[in-house]
What we know:
The chain is 35% helix and 31% strand. The protein has 288 residues and is of the alpha+beta class. The chain folds into two domains: 3-157, Ribosomal Protein S5, domain 2 (2-Layer Sandwich); 166-284, 2-Layer Sandwich (Alpha-Beta Plaits). The strands form two sheets. Strands 1, 2, 3, 4, 5, 6 and 8 form a seven-stranded mixed beta sheet that branches. A four-stranded antiparallel beta sheet has the order 9-10-7-11, with helices on both faces. A hairpin with a 3-residue loop joins strand 5 (146-150) and strand 6 (154-157). It is globular and about 55 Å long.
Amino acid sequence: MKKVTLRAYAKLNLGLNLLPEKTTSGYYKVYFINTQLKLSDRVKIKKLPTKNDIIVLPDAIEGKSNLAYEAAKTIKERYNIAEGIEIKIKKNIPIKAGLGGGSSDAASVINGMIEIFALNIDNGEKLQLAKHLGMDVCYCTIGGLCEVKGIGDEVYPLQIRTPRLNILLIIPANTKPSTGWAYARVREEDLGRNIDKINKLIEALKEGSIYNIAKYIHNDFERVMIREFPFLNDIKEAMLKYGALNASLAGSGLSIYGIFETKKLMKAAAIPFRKRGFRVICTETLNI
C-alpha cells in the first residue's frame, strides 16, 4: 500500500474534569469522557520516492510546527523509515476551538503510517508514540467513546455504543492564547467538585438517555474561560433559550456546544447565531 485517506474526527469532551493534583509538567491530572463528532478533516498520506522528506500541504497549516508533521517525524525516526511522506489535510474542524482538530490530524497520520508501512503496533505502543505530541493525540489515536485519565495517556474505550446526539457548535471569532494559558488560570480550589457527575454520565450513556447525558455534561475549564471571556456565558444562555437540553464549553474553548432533542430544533437554533455573525456548525456524535 502506497497511500491512504483517513477521516480525522473532531473530539468532544462530554465530561472534562481536572483533578487537584499536578504532574511534573505543571498540568493537572485529568478524568475525561470523550467522544467524536461526524465533523472531520480529511487526511491523505502517501509514500514519496525521495528519502526522508516530510511534506505537509497546504503550507497554511503551519508547516513543520504542525502536529501532523511531528507525528510523521516521530514514526519515521522510531521505526527507521527511509521513504518520504506527503500529507495533505483538508480542514473542516475549526482551529484552536477546543475540538481537537490538530490532534486528530496527527492521530490520523500515526494510524495511516502504521497502515501504509504495515507496522505491528498495538494500542499501548500507539499511546506512547502520541504521548509527547499531546494528550488529545493519545485519545484521537484510539477514538470512540472513552474514559481518559492520567495526563491524557490512559485511554480506556467504554463498551457502549455512542448515542446519537444532535450537537450545535458556536465558534466565536475570538481565540485564546493556548491550552497552557487556560490551565494557568484554573483555580485549584474549583477542581474535583463535579467528579461525581462522571459515573452519572456513564450510566446515562449506557441507558442512551439524551436528557440525562445532557444533564450531566461538565467542563472544569468553563468557569475560568467565562471569567476571562464573559461573552461565552451569553452564548450558553442563548443556546438554552433556543431549546438546547444543555450547553457547555468544548475543551478549553472557545467553542460552545449545545445538545438538542431533534435536528429540527438544532437547525432552528442555528439561525439567530448565524445572524449574529458567529461561525455555526450543525453536526452529531459519531454513532460507533
